[in-house]
Every structure is written in C-alpha cells, then in structure tokens.
Amino acid sequence: MTCGLGAGRAATYNRGVPRAPRPAPAPAPVPVEFRVLSEIGIVEQLARNRLERVLPAGLSVAQFSVLNHFVRLGGTPSLVALARAFQVSKPAMGKLVRKLAEQGLVDVRADPDDARGKRVSITDAGVATHGAAIAALEPELVRLRGALGTASFEALLPGLQRLRQWLDAHR
C-alpha cells in the first residue's frame, strides 16, 4: 500500500507500519593513490585561485603557465610540442601563444625544420612578467612558509617530482 505524499513522493507501508529506510551501503575503501591524486587536485584548485588574484592585469593562469614552462625549461619548442606538453589541441595552444605574442611576452617565428610549423620563445618582457607574478605571489608564499615551514615543502618536493615524472612519461 502506498500513501501519496505529494508530487513524486511516496512512502510504502506494510500493514499500516512505515518501513524503516534502508541504510546506505558502506563506501568502498578508496585507494591511497586516488586519495593522493585527489588532494593534489584540490591543492591545485586552491593554489590556482590564489594565483589568479595576484597575476598582472591581462595575464591568465594558462598564459602564466606557458611563461612558467619557458622559465623552467627554456628552449624554443614548436607550437605542436607546447600543445603536447600542456595536453591541449594545437589550435588552443595557438590562440594562447597569439595572445602572449600580442602582449610581447613570447616571440613566434617560422620553424626552420618545418615550413608549416612555428617555434616559440619567451622574450625579456615575458621573463619580467613571470618574475612580477612570482613577486606578487610572494606574500602568499611567506604565509604558507610560516604556517607549514620550509622543511615540509622540501620533504614534499622529491615525491611530487617523481610522481610528475612518471605521469609525464606515461601519458
């Protein structure tokens, strides 16, 4: 027997006595690897939000990430190599690089090895903009260092680097 309780809601009764709701199934244990990746994702989102608040006007996190890539690794990668590194399409990377080039932060030249390709390099203005973004983030970094201590970050870094290297090698 059912008793109408409103639009789309019904309770089932057994001889006039409400049936107890079934308990929710116990969640399956979550592997530690998933929990680590989940924490990294949450940390990335929180860190991205802080970074967005301090970036120089007109510079997106995606654009800063490309500048950061150049500062870390140097070189003059092709547009295709950049797209691969960031795991985005070539048109998406082309649009991002065009915006950086319009701001004078990267230089785009014809690829001498591929007539259809482009090579990208960071300019002095791009290095300066990257430095300004890091400097603007410094108060947040000081707060983090004060809250957690430099030793905590130094202890985290080797494991995170190994994880990044493995994930990068096994795309």
Summed up, what is this model?
By secondary structure, the chain is of the alpha+beta class. The chain is built from six helices and five strands; from the N terminus they run E-E-E-H-H-H-H-E-E-H-H.
How far apart are the termini?
56 Å
Helix content: 55-70%
Number of strands: 5
**Average pLDDT metric:** 89
State the main characteristics.
alpha+beta, 6 helices, 171 residues, 5 strands
Please provide a written account of the structure.
This protein is α+β, with helices and mostly antiparallel strands. Helices cover 60% and strands 15% of the residues. The protein has six helices and five strands. Strands 1-2-3 form a three-stranded antiparallel β-sheet, with no helix packed on it. Strand 2 (10-14) and strand 3 form a beta hairpin. It starts with a strand and ends with a helix.
